[in-house]
């Protein structure tokens, strides 16, 4: 029987375009909680020794990812300059993903209906198993829900930060070890 869940031994976390210009399009009350959930999932990935690939759209023009995201990158981790909307179309980013030796990608970031969606669809088209954390990505207005619906209809796994966490963790001993490694404080609207 095939394992239909996301497996930490096969996963890479892709953090897409968590930059001020894209966050500024969201309602003010949505911004900090979204960034906190993304940063927390990055800490979890590090605790589980999952590769983290970070990128920003047009870094020279739009600037780097926000400080909480940069703070969670393992030392020496580059931030890739993404010049296309779907990360699979950017040779350097795709090479970095392939170099991990993994075949599952968990995506978080902005915007759900454009860069996250095109990245997920592009990777799925290349044979990757792709999951998107619905509460780990965002887009203004109805675009978020539309992006998630498009992804779900295309067979991309749409979960939550919490559900993907538990798929990575799988058992109580690992859960306890990860909680100890990342600390007990959880982002707003997240309970374990």
TrEMBL record:
<feature type="domain" description="Isochorismatase-like">
    <location>
        <begin position="12"/>
        <end position="162"/>
    </location>
</feature>
<dbReference type="InterPro" id="IPR036380">
    <property type="entry name" value="Isochorismatase-like_sf"/>
</dbReference>
<dbReference type="InterPro" id="IPR053152">
    <property type="entry name" value="Hydrolase_YcaC-like"/>
</dbReference>
<dbReference type="Pfam" id="PF00857">
    <property type="entry name" value="Isochorismatase"/>
</dbReference>
<dbReference type="InterPro" id="IPR000868">
    <property type="entry name" value="Isochorismatase-like_dom"/>
</dbReference>
<protein>
    <submittedName>
        <fullName>Isochorismatase family protein</fullName>
    </submittedName>
</protein>
């Amino acid at each position: 029987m095939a394992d239909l869940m996301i497996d930490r031994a096969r996963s890479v976390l892709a953090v897409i375009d968590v930059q001020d210009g894209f966050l500024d399009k969201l309602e003010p009350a949505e911004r900090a909680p979204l960034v906190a959930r993304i940063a927390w999932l990055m800490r979890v990935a590090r605790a589980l020794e999952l590769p983290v690939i970070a990128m920003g759209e047009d870094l020279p023009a739009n600037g780097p990812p926000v400080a909480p995201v940069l703070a969670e990158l393992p030392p020496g981790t580059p931030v890739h300059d993404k010049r296309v909307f779907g990360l699979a179309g950017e040779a350097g980013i795709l090479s970095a993903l392939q170099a991990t030796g993994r075949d599952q990608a968990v995506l978080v970031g902005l915007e759900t209906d454009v860069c996250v969606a095109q990245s997920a669809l592009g990777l799925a088209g290349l044979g990757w198993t792709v999951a998107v954390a619905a509460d780990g990505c965002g887009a203004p207005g109805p675009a978020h829900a539309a992006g998630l619906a498009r992804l779900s209809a295309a067979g991309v796994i749409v979960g939550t930060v919490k559900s993907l966490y538990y798929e990575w963790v799988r058992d109580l001993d690992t859960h306890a070890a990860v909680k100890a490694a990342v600390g007990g404080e959880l982002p707003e609207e997240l309970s374990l």
